[in-house]
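Researcher: I'd like a candidate sequence for this fold, 268 residues long. If you have to choose between options at a position, lean toward the conservative one.
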């Protein structure tokens, strides 16, 4: 097998894995939403089709770098992924998971906040915020530029942080779970967790809902650390509130892509 063919097949396999994972997890939580809150997604068929389209495009963008890195690890020993569970102390397994999540969260916060500046928002991030309100299918509904900023994170971190496949699997599972559940329109975690001490530092759907309602706050992915440190944490959202639709309403909510008159805003 030639190198190019090997790279192509690895990238194709990873793309299919990401796409199928998305369809299964998002589809599962869409069904859970139908059971938990019947009619919540009523009238959003066109939006959901758009979310599916952009998410499947994103699956390819996520799959290509992951496939290249997987091929390099398998063929040439790239990355710091190790298969011998005892190559590092067992305590390193949870530590590596936490380090990866913390690094991913920091990258996400700052790239996400940058994408809420007027030009990047109009160019790319507006695709994600076109879901008003988002559904369980919106987890990967990104413009290709935004998808690329997310696709490089884990493939880069495995060159920096020694990780066992178990740890990598946990990180990818958390990433997938939070990406879907934070957009599905209701809170699956118990209120005692969300409103308790842990909820002051962990991001769930209640926290991310306010980001989609007000735009200029709650930029984090897993943890509220950067939002609290940088003064962008606005607390938990309200799932009963109606999403901003008009340009005027969106500007009032803080959408950086529009001003009150519908023109691009220069605030950022």
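Model: Candidate sequence:
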């Amino acid at each position: 097998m030639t190198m190019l063919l090997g790279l192509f097949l690895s990238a194709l396999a990873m793309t299919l894995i990401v796409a199928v994972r998305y369809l299964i997890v998002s589809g599962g939580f869409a069904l859970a939403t139908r059971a938990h809150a019947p009619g919540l997604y009523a009238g959003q068929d066109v939006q959901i089709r758009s979310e599916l389209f952009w998410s499947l495009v994103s699956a390819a963008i996520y799959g290509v770098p992951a496939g290249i890195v997987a091929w390099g690890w398998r063929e040439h020993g790239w990355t710091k992924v190790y298969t011998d569970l005892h190559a590092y102390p067992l305590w390193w397994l949870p530590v590596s998971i936490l380090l990866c999540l913390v690094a991913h969260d920091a990258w996400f916060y700052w790239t996400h906040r940058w994408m809420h500046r007027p030009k990047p928002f109009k160019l790319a991030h507006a695709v994600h915020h076109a879901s008003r309100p988002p559904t369980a299918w919106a987890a990967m509904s990104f413009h290709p530029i935004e998808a690329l900023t997310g696709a490089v994170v884990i493939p880069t971190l495995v060159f920096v942080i020694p990780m066992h496949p178990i740890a990598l699997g946990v990180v990818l599972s958390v990433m997938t779970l939070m990406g879907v559940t934070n957009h599905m329109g209701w809170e699956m975690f118990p209120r005692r967790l969300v409103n308790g001490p842990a909820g002051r530092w962990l991001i769930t759907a209640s926290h991310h809902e306010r980001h989609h309602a007000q735009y200029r706050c709650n930029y984090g992915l897993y943890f509220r650390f950067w939002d609290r440190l940088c003064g962008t944490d606005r607390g938990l959202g309200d799932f009963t509130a109606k999403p901003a639709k008009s340009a005027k309403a969106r500007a009032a909510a803080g959408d950086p892509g529009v001003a009150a008159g519908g023109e691009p805003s220069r605030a950022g």
